[in-house]
Specification:
Elements (H helix, E strand, L loop, with lengths): L1 H27 L5 H23 L10 H22 L5 H8 L2 H13 L5 H18 L11 H25 L4 H23 L1 H7 L3 H29 L1 H6 L3 H14 L5 H17 L6 H21 L1
Amino acid sequence: MKQSVRIYSAVILAMVFWSLSFIWYKDVYEFYKPITLVVGRLLVSSVFMYIVTGLMGKLSRLKREDLSFFMLLAFFEPFLYFVGESFGMTMVPSTLAAVIVSTIPLFSPLGEYYIYRTRISAMNLLGIMVSIVGVCMVIFHSGLDQIDANPVGIALMFLAVIAALGYSLTLRKLTAKYNVFTIITYQNTFAVIYFLPLFLVFELNHFLEVGVTLKSITPILKLGIFASTFAFLLFTYSVKHLGVTKANSFANAIPVLTAIFAYILLGEVLSAIKVIGIAVVVLGLFLSQIPKEHARRVFAFIPVGLITLARLRKKE
């Protein structure tokens, strides 16, 4: 029981940090360009991880036969994911970006089945679909005509989704051999190597012109420590114990949490339909985690629930 609480607390907290990152992105873009943002957060995370793993003695030696897997892991995420997300975030609203990211669970079962032959239960799929309905209620609460975004930005965000799927599938192989501290430390180190040439060629001059101030560096520190370090540590821990599909199903909570944080931090309106959508997402997440042996009871309850709702509507 205690372990289950730790596992689910870990994955939920990871989603909280990633949801906040959509707000921190906008703060950074007041000063810096996308590649500068990514290099900054990865450098912060890498330095932080080497200090922590050094003090705790948690950094394992990388085996030669696993080098290619770590390079592939870092290529998918942070590199390819951040290319899509960082540039996409300059072209689409934060909430729309969040809902695109939340489609990751749609593709996870297919990828996990194809690579690892993992069976996907009907309950998992039902929970995912219910959550997606809730997500759509949150994002499209004002109607489809209210969504205004650059198609290129949308395509870049879906590139991030594909990268996240590749990352999760590669990650599962490494979690059997390395602790979470080692995986995150090496993945961010390789990602810095991937991004550094791009930064030096395209954005170094702009960075030097802007300079570094407390206001400009604070959101990068938040992204580096919370979104690129703690969130990945917590998510890696949850993948190890829940599997790719169950852990990724919590990505449906990201746009909901983003809407809540936007309401609290940015003063955006949280309408009744958004609140209902949030409740539907939470319901979907619970459904996706229900063990197979209890699925029949839940399926038997669904018709009863629908009949009850129909009766309540007639009374109204």
